[in-house]
Amino acid sequence: MSIKSAILGILSWKPSTGYELKKIFEDSSFMYWSGNNNQVYKALISMEDEELVTSKVIHQDNSPSKKIYTITEEGLKELKEWVISSPEAPEIKKTFLVQLAWSDMLSNQELSEILTKYENEIKSQLIMQQEKYRRSIHSPNRNTRESLIWEMISENIISTYNNELNWIRGTRQKLFENEAAEEKDKMNYQMREIENKKYIELISTTEPLSTENDALNLVALCWEHETHVLMIHYAALSEDFFKLKTKAAGNIIQKFINYGIKAAVIIPQETIQKGRFKEMVMETNKGNHFRMYESKEEAEKWFLN
Question: Of 103, 123, 121, whose CA–CA distance to 219 is shortest?
Answer without folding.
Answer: 123
